[in-house]
């Protein structure tokens, strides 16, 4: 490896130290892994403790939307795009005997995403789809690590105009998403590490899914 990999070197310095004792390298890797595990466990606990009541409130609103025939539209960029597809898949095709709920990832149709990006602009790739698919009472959920994605801001604005329930997941201090008046339920993971943010956000949306399932059982009297 060369010094061009300085970013990687800062994460894994033992790979750049030249000939070294294997046991020492393995010990370094073990300590690094333990530190990361401790960090994400503490961060998840902090977020869930701080936002427990707000998560429950959000789940109740989402459950009422689904019970009334609403659907979930979810979106994000990059790694958050993958998370958005995970959210849609989890609601639409859950494991076990949990009920299937209508959910659509707005990042999944590459023809639509590239057409809008090429012909109009990348900042409208989600807003245009919300305009096409969204109905009053539906749910719009946007995921971002920075909270600053322009296309998410546009999407939340469009969702609010059309009367959708809005749910946001962000990291750092929430970025621009924390400044918006168009996000009714915003959950911010207070970390500067993209890895830790996305790991904690995974926990947040899994908790929301579980709470929504529970609320729907209470609303409808059936599983």
What does this structure look like?
This protein is an alpha/beta fold. The chain has a single domain (21-220), classed as 3-Layer(aba) Sandwich (Rossmann fold), CATH 3.40.50.10490. Helices cover 55% and strands 11% of the residues. The chain contains seven helices and five strands, in the order H-H-E-H-E-H-H-E-H-E-E-H. The chain has helices at 6-11, 22-67, 79-92, 110-119, 127-133, 150-161, 194-220; strands spanning 72-76, 103-105, 139-143, 165-171, 185-189. The chain has a five-stranded parallel β-sheet with strand order 2-1-3-4-5, sandwiched between helices. Strand 1, helix 3 (79-92) and strand 2 (103-105) form a beta-alpha-beta unit. The longest helix is centred in the first third of the chain and has 46 residues, at 22-67. It is globular, with a radius of gyration of 20 Å. The mean pLDDT is 91.
Strand order of the largest sheet: 2-1-3-4-5
Q: What is the 3D form? A: globular
Low-confidence stretches: none
> What is the ordering of alpha helices and beta strands?
HHEHEHHEHEEH
What is the average per-residue confidence, as pLDDT, rounded to a whole number?
Answer: 91
Distinct helical segment count: 7
CATH-defined topology = Rossmann fold
**Cα end-to-end separation:** 55 Å
Mind telling me the CATH class? Alpha Beta
Strand content: 5-15%
Find the structural class using helix and strand composition. alpha/beta
* Largest sheet descriptor: 5 strands, parallel
- Rg of Cα set: 20 Å
Helix content: 40-55%
> CATH H-level name... which superfamily?
Glucose-6-phosphate isomerase like protein, domain 1
CATH-derived architecture: 3-Layer(aba) Sandwich
- The total domain count is 1
- The number of distinct β-strands equals 5
């Amino acid at each position: 490896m060369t010094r061009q990999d300085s970013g990687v070197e800062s994460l894994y310095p033992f790979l750049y130290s030249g000939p070294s004792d294997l046991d020492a390298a393995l010990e370094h890797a073990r300590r690094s892994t333990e530190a990361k595990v401790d960090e994400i466990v503490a961060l998840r606990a902090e977020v869930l403790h701080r936002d427990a009541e707000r998560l429950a409130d959000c789940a109740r609103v989402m459950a009422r939307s689904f019970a009334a025939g609403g659907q979930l539209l979810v979106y994000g960029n990059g790694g958050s795009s993958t998370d958005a597809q995970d959210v849609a898949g989890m609601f639409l095709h859950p494991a076990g005997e949990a009920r299937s709920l209508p959910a659509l990832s707005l990042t999944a149709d590459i023809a639509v995403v590239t057409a809008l990006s090429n012909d109009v602009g990348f900042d409208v790739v989600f807003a245009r789809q919300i305009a096409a698919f969204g109905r009053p009472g539906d749910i719009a959920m946007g995921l971002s690590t920075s909270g600053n994605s322009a296309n998410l801001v546009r999407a939340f604005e469009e969702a609010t105009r059309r009367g959708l329930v809005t749910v946001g997941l962000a990291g750092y201090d929430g970025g621009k998403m924390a400044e918006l008046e168009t996000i009714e339920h915003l959950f911010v993971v207070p970390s500067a590490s993209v890895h830790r943010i996305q790991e904690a956000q995974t926990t947040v949306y899994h908790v929301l899914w579980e709470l929504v399932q529970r609320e729907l059982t209470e609303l409808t009297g059936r599983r």
